[in-house]
Amino acid sequence: MRFIYAEYNMYHNSIDVTTFDGYILRIDYNKAEDGLKTTPCSECALNALAIDEPLEYARLYLDGNLQMWVDAEDSLELW
Predict the structure, then answer these.
(1) Tens of pLDDT along 1-49?
(2) Rounded distance between C-alpha atoms, residue 50 and residue 15, angstroms
(3) CA–CA separation, 38 vs 2, rounded Å?
(4) Residue 54 CB: number of other CB atoms within 10 A?
């Protein structure tokens, strides 16, 4: 069985994904969000996702679904 661990690295402003096979993937938070269309609410939700659920953030980024997640988050806003 292979395990994966992810954490938000505040010193590098990144998500560090570590496999217990010894591989480390660092996702630069600023580059991952470059070009995303966000609102202040979805930006806050995206920051919370990166800090609270970094593995989910990494999965969304690697699958190319960050913008879809942001759009869904914005559609849940109450105006």
Answers:
(1) 467 889 999 999 999 999 888 899 999 989 999 999 999 989 999 999 9
(2) 7
(3) 35
(4) 21
- What CA–CA distance (Å, rounded) separates 4 from 74? 29
Q: Do residues 70 and 37 make contact, with C-beta atoms less than 8 angstroms apart?
A: yes
- pLDDT of 75 reads 82
Closest of 34, 15, 36 to residue 26, by C-alpha: 15
Alpha helices in the chain (DSSP H): 29-32, 40-52, 54-63, 66-75
For residues 20 and 7, is the Cβ–Cβ distance under 8 A? no
- For residue 27, give the nearest of 56, 48, 2 by alpha carbon: 56
Model confidence, pTM: 0.85
C-alpha 13: how far from chain center? 11
